[in-house]
Write a structure and sequence with these properties.
The chain is built from four helices and nine strands.
């Protein structure tokens, strides 16, 4: 299996309320789409591996969007950003952050849906078709302009995916908590408050002040 990847690094901010990390499979390379994508004039398409690799830099920093019915694209509803892309085998994988505080309905849809329910669909510009007369169009060049989050069965490629990454507790290192035998145990202890210092009165006042300030800046 051959892996080629690109990424941009954002500074880490522990517990950022508006950054929910996600991973997904955006599309497949060198394989025909399950059904014609929008703009392909009724043709199924193949994105070549060479075209996908050449276009990886254009994918970084692009937005992910969604439509309220989860059945298509809406480029004006930008709810996250792609920070990493790689081609692994036939899968073009992406990762990034969802703006979970700004778009709680998106985070809720992804978290509460059944596993494997959500997928992705690419958005392209400057696509070059090798032979317009072919039954299946082969794309040999393209520029990524974004991606959509949608129901998996609405995507042109059925084998796509989109999921939020569980955020690991940062106050308790996995496999270090006394009595915690697994990472899941450590995370459970974190949620239950194990290993966390009890805030003092001054600390409580500071936390309340920060909360009021956050709400003020959000207005």
């Amino acid at each position: 299996m051959k892996l080629q990847a690109m990424a941009v690094t954002l500074p880490e901010v522990a517990g950022h309320p508006n950054r929910a990390p996600f991973t997904g499979v955006l599309t497949l390379v060198d394989e025909p789409s399950t059904k014609p994508p929008s703009g392909a004039r009724g043709h199924r398409v193949i994105l070549t591996r060479a075209a996908a690799l050449a276009a990886l830099p254009s994918l970084l920093g692009m937005a992910v969007d969604y439509a309220p019915a989860w059945d298509g694209h809406d480029a004006r509803r930008k709810c996250g950003v792609i920070t990493q892309a790689d081609v692994e085998g036939t899968r073009l994988r992406v990762a990034g952050y969802l703006y979970a505080k700004d778009f709680p309905e998106v985070a809720r849809q992804v978290r509460q849906g059944l596993p494997g329910t959500m997928g992705m669909s690419w958005e392209l510009a400057d696509a070059h078709v090798e032979d317009m007369r072919a039954e299946i169009w082969t794309l040999t060049r393209a520029t990524f302009t974004g991606a959509a989050i949608l129901l998996r069965d609405k995507a042109a490629y059925r084998n796509t995916s989109f999921e939020l990454v569980p955020q690991r507790c940062r106050s308790v290192a996995p496999r270090v908590v006394a009595g915690a035998r697994t990472e899941a145990d450590a995370n459970r202890n974190c949620r239950n408050g194990a290993g966390a210092a009890v805030p003092t009165n001054d600390r409580r006042k500071e936390l309340r002040w920060k909360t009021r300030q956050a709400n003020t800046w959000a207005l």
